[in-house]
Structure formats: structure tokens, C-alpha cells
Amino acid sequence: MFRTLKPAPVRTAAARQSAVRSMTGFGRAETSDAKGRICAEIRAVNGRFLKLGFKLPPRYGAFEDRIKTLLAERGVKRGSVDVSLYVESVGAGENSFGIDAKAAKAYAKQAKALAKSLGLKGEIPLQALLALPGVVTRAESEDDADEAWSRCEPVLNEALNRFDAMRIKEGAAMAADVRGRMAELSAHREALRQDAPAALQRSVEKFKERIQKLLQKSGIDQPLDKDILEREVVLASDRTDISEELARLESHFAQMEAALADGGEAGKKLDFLTQELFRETNTIGSKANDQTITHRVVDIKNLIEKIREQVQNLE
């Protein structure tokens, strides 16, 4: 009885492009027909760029370019991707196996030389030689390339369907997690906006106190000119005002949501935006110089780090 493929859901190219995908994925498909068994496996892990690896039967090495085309059509653009194809022919018969005597003799000669140099004794068992690469050989049939590809391509496509489905499913889970943390960041940003006026006022009061203490320490009894004091207070307020950073944070939040909604190769853009979130948050912490805001900045940076860990897994 022949084994048939159980197809995974097939998504259109447009649907795949609009989905946020994880770089990690696995897909396997297998079928059997009158000519033998075919199995395809595709697995991928994170990577900054696209790195392809192939494990194919020697006679099918020319399939690499065709498989690359299939991967490109599926929109695989980043990650370390390994493709394995196994083909077993039916009815090859016992005459298809042979022993390469020259290879066995070469192995035996080198093993004896090594044993002698190490001062070891003992015979080399035949089963040990037969297990070495290249000693037992199997004759490969001369298949027509196009005919062989017509058998392998459906299996590879089904493995790709399952590979793609896993990446999209994991990508959706990661996107949901990122959106949840973005909501927390937005709440922190709103709290900062509400805390900022009071923090700015506290900063101004501290500045005035420092000026007064410096005057007293210098033995100056006359009050500082009011216009000069107000000018210095304005300058100090500008240095501690975080309204611009809060506005940029809001802009970055919108850009991250847009990247998640657009899908496709969103990982690089999201990673860049998380770096910008870090930069703005650090600036807020250093400018505000307020205990309440500093505590909130620490919480924000922890959230951003968790987001960054997730987006670095996205294609």
C-alpha cells in the first residue's frame, strides 16, 4: 500500500507576506510510491542573514538551485536553514551493494600504522572496517533529473507548507507577546507624561536651593538678580524637560505596531526600533534626575529588553 501525503494548510503568497514569522521552524513530509520512498525535512534556527545547508543524495546535488527557488518563493530571507532529502529506491536488489576493497585496505593499513606508533596490539575486526565510510557502497540508479524532480518537488512543497505553518504560528505568538509588552510600555509612558510636570517642578526647586546654598557659602548677603535667576531656571528646565523624548517614544510605538501589522521581514526593523526605545529611555532617566521617574525608567528598560529578545527571533 502506497503512503500518501497529508497536506498542511496552504497559504497564499500574499497571506505569507502579511504574516509575522519566526525564524525557527521545522517541516517534514514523506511519501511512498511504486519507485520507492521520499522524505523531506526542513529546519531553521535564528541567524542575522540567510544561510542555507543541504543534505541531498549525491545524484540529486543539482536540485540545490531548484530548492533555493522554492525557499525564495516562500519568502525565506533570514535564518540558518537546513534542507534534507532522502530517497530510497524499491527493488534495487542485492547486486546494488558492493565493497570497496581498496578503501578497506587503506583503512586497515593506516590503523595498523597508528597501532604500531602507539605501541598497541590487537587485530582489526572485519565489522569495524565495514562500518567505515566508503567501504560498503550502493550503486545509484541513473534517474532522469526532471522525472526525479517531479517526484521530489511535491514532498518538498509539503514539508515547506508545514515549515511555513510552524513559523507563522510561532510568529503570531511572538507578535502577541510583543504587543502585550508594548501596551505596558504605553502605560508607563502615559504615567511619565503625568509625572513629568511635578518632577520638573521638583528639579527647579532643587536648582534654586543649590543656588541659595552657594550664595550663602560664598558669604553673599544680597539676593541674586531676579532676571538672572529666572534665566538660569529656564535653562535648567530645558535640560530636564523630557517632553520630546516622550513624543519620540510614542512615535516609535506606532512604528513598531505598523511593522507588526505589515509582517514580512519585520525583525530587523523591530530590532532597530527597540534600540531607539532604549536610547530615548536612557535620555529620560539622565535628564529627569528624579527618583520617581528613575524607578519607572528601570521598569521600562526591563520591558524593552524582553521585547528585544522576542523580535530578534522574528524574520
Could you describe the largest sheet, including whether it forms a barrel? 4 strands, mixed
| Averaged pLDDT | 82
E-strand count: 6
Structural class, judged by helices and strands? alpha+beta
Instruction: Record the strand order, biggest sheet.
Output: 1-2-4-3
Number of DSSP helical runs? 9
Question: Uncertain spans, ≥5 residues at pLDDT below 50?
Answer: none
User: Termini separation (Å)?
Assistant: 40 Å
Strand content: 5-15%
Order of helices and strands: HEEEHEEHHEHHHHH
Rg over alpha carbons: 33 Å
Residue share in helices? Answer: 55-70%
The general outline is: elongated
List the helices and strands and how they pair.
Layout: H1 13-18, E1 25-33, E2 36-45, E3 50-55, H2 63-73, E4 79-89, E5 97-99, H3 101-118, H4 126-130, E6 136-138, H5 145-217, H6 226-240, H7 243-262, H8 267-288, H9 291-311
Parallel strand pairs: 3-4
Antiparallel strand pairs: 1-2, 2-4, 5-6
Helix pairs in contact: 2-5, 5-6, 5-7, 5-9, 7-8, 8-9
